[in-house]
Amino acid sequence: MKLHPVRVYASDENLPREQQLAWKIAEVAADPVTVTPEVTDMIINRIIDNAAVATASLTRAPAVAARAQAQDRPHQRVEPVETPGGSTVFGVDGRFQPEWAAWANGVAVRELDYHDTFLAAEYSHPGDNIPPILAVAQHRGSTGAELVAAIATGYEIQIDLVKAISLHAHKIDHVAHLGPSAAAGIGTLLGLPVETIFQAVGQALHTTTATRQSRKGEISTWKAHAPAFAGKMAIEAVDRAMRGQTSPTPIYEGEDGVIAWLLGGTEARYEVPLPERGEAKRAILDSYTKEHSAEYQAQAWIDLARALGATYPALRDPANVVAAVLHTSHHTHYVIGSGANDPQKYDPTASRETLDHSIPYIFTVALQDGEWHHERSYAPERAARPDTVELWNKVTTREDAEWTRRYHSIDPAEKAFGGRVEIELADGTRIVEEIAVADAHPLGARPFAREQYVAKFRALAEGVLDDAEIERFLALVQRLPELTAEELGGLTVTVAGLPVGPRGLF
């Protein structure tokens, strides 16, 4: 890996494009390196993971609406073409315009907040790269091996940006790293020249930079749409760049660019790690998925709460608890904890999206129930249970400098996303326990491997897909590197009788 210094340049400094970050990203995307077996294996795992959570979301309102928008835009084959064209949409038969297929599938994947994650200077769900890259692969008749190389690029670019450039510190939503990474992945897929990928990366960044209000206060259904929008914009940016259209330059370093006005300002300095020429793209191996349908910073706390409830059943009764304080990282405290000062995080009538970002609620329910379920744990009647509301209001968070340091550590052995809980009981005793990483984390008690990814898919697909469809998909995806273009169209699932979305403008 090589560190690339990035700063703001005045217009009269005339920063050559070959020295711009977007160009260096494009060079990585255009470098046809071999994908290693372990990276290929993990890409298969993450496609399974995405399909699992998308399947579980098929009847949820955001996924229904996005799917209806895609269904209104079927692919129209224009002769002469060498492939059928169009892309599949989770849940339904047919081929649709690729940007709208990516939109629908991106919403379905993200709706439950239940797929992979990478956390460093910024936060991300790098699996969000898969829907747009897969949609273009199906549309253009790519092979499974070509798709693998493209996804490796998408993960590499997003994770490298996340390691170096904080967006949330400046109240910019984390999907601003996804637009460029998806565009780069599509560039790899299509074998585009550096110049074209450079223009697509710049356009994708320019059109996908938005504020973090989508994850603040009363969180709306747009939370699931934001990454899908970034993927859709990436596809459109590539299309424009292939037609010779250019982008704002330099998009990162310009005097009126992203860094100068939306991030750290004219004095900001960043160092972005990127693979050197000929170096394998391995960043996907640094990421991790979720066992539970909740914000990643809640994963370890769910595991700890379940264990505490089993060991100390009395903790489930609010009459026995005076207070529970979760000592944790800056991010956990200020984004999903009481440090956010969002009253909605203690509101039993709050939306599912809001409860998903309330660690006091999540910790309480996992403690009482000994489980975390993507539907039952968020049900309105579950949130409104009087004993839960009483205990929930006794749970607060507090930033701990050591847990913040470990959260930002670059050493995988000490990087942590949990914390220490101190519980004061009514009888005067105290219980103190801690957890560093979730059980499913690579360094956790039960790390996820292919067996766990397959089990997650089966569990979430049960009652939604026919058994034959489950087995067909799993057999196909595990042959990914050898799939033909025709077979790649099977990387989807279909369900009879899905709800039809409400009509909109079109």
Automatic annotation (TrEMBL):
Annotated keywords: Lyase
Domain MmgE/PrpD C-terminal: 292-479
Catalytic activity: (2S,3S)-2-methylcitrate = 2-methyl-cis-aconitate + H2O
Enzyme nomenclature, EC number: 4.2.1.79
Listed InterPro entries: MmgE/PrpD_sf (IPR036148), MmgE/PrpD_sf_1 (IPR042183), MmgE/PrpD_sf_2 (IPR042188), MmgE_PrpD (IPR005656), MmgE_PrpD_C (IPR045337), MmgE_PrpD_N (IPR045336)
GO molecular function: 2-methylcitrate dehydratase activity
Domain of life, per lineage: Bacteria
Record text on subunit structure and interactions: Monomer.
Protein name: 2-methylcitrate dehydratase
Organism taxonomic ancestry: Bacteria, Bacillati, Actinomycetota, Actinomycetes, Micrococcales
